[in-house]
Amino acid sequence: MVEGVSRIDVIMSVELICVGTELLLGDILNSNAQYLAQEFAKLGIPHYYQSVVGDNISRIHQVIDLACQRSSILVFTGGLGPTPDDLTTEAIASYFKTPLIEDPDVLHNIQHKFNAVGRVMTPSNCKQALIPQGASVLPNPSGTAPGMIWQPRPHLIILTFPGVPSEMKRMWHETAVPYLKEQGWGKDIIYSRVMRFRGIGESALAEKVGDLLNLSNPTVAPYASMGEVKLRVSAKAKSETEAITLIEPVAEKIKEIAGLDYFGSDTDTLASVVGQLLREAKQTLSVAESCTGGGLGEMLTTIAGSSDYFYGGVISYDNKVKIALLDVNQNDLEQYGAVSEIVARAMAKGVKTKLGTDWGISITGIAGPGGGSEAKPVGLVYIGFATPDGRVEAHEYRLGQQRERETIRYISSCIALDGLRRLLIKKLEKKL
Prior knowledge:
Blueprint: E1 14-19, H1 21-24, H2 31-42, E2 47-53, H3 57-70, E3 73-77, H4 88-95, E4 100-102, H5 104-116, E5 130-132, E6 136-138, E7 147-153, E8 156-161, H6 165-182, E9 189-198, H7 202-208, E10 219-225, E11 228-237, H8 240-258, E12 262-265, H9 270-281, E13 285-289, H10 295-301, E14 310-315, H11 319-326, H12 330-336, H13 341-355, E15 359-365, E16 380-386, E17 392-398, H14 405-431
Helix pairs in contact: 3-4, 9-14
């Protein structure tokens, strides 16, 4: 237990407060929030609120005031540096009307770190040795900005960390986690499994699993992004094994309800799932891309070992490439245009033949923002499949004229992978 901090009996929830105007301006990504949220879950600490506030004492006071009304552990990141805009410690101390005291051990440690790298410590760094009277230092082994652990009033704990992720993470694990476990946290954990779906909307999936959304332990919650729907199944238990035991029957029920729309869980991606299916089938793949410009190939090759089944691709952005490398008929291009079912079919067949693979996939479309027409609007995409048994098919998708170019390209690649996934599953099931 950290010296000078008394044990409290009740802690209801934790609130994360990230300090830094750079966060509000979007200059840096707030990765600390994601990391600490996951860590709170591991300790089984309820976590209902997060705040981001700029480098301003008055506004930090407002955030603290609200947080104290609804949370019993306040975790701060950022604002512990030596510059005038680093105000976290000062703001916390002034809110609780507590003087700042210079800690000689901290000052000595900062001086030692400067000496170790042959640099002269500036007077401004002395500011980092100031902590509220009665608080305990949360050591920073890596940097010059220590944090603190403080109980300024009964049933309220404050922990502060620097904004530098590497420093924060080490301080969290080496000091904060042992301290919180001594306070009684970590006996229960919150463990989650994220189930992933394609080809079904969030509302449609929610309706299908409606009864499961009312469960209390485990809980089931839907959310969606970029054409993918996710169900987070979370359980509170004494151990990960116990949590998985609670989650498993619910997850199996969801899989049964969703059918082919379910494709994987947690770190699974469409590319990794397709790769595993190709391995199981002992089959190979090549791709022909136009509007996605290599995006589909990139997805496939992010998977380690994808050379086992992925031979390569052709980026046939210009019609001359479609004709020369994929054997697309020039007359078809002139009559139907590059964005058409017949061209998508020819591209898929052409790349399969040229690269000698079992499967060929093609994508041709209008990603925008220009180039669309009334007959062929932005967001129109054709995806073709050439199968091992010689069949060739293509499907039309209208992804929306208001979507951004990169979104259309990304979703097109995902649809192509999902289409191949479904075809592979059906073929593998026939063999069983």
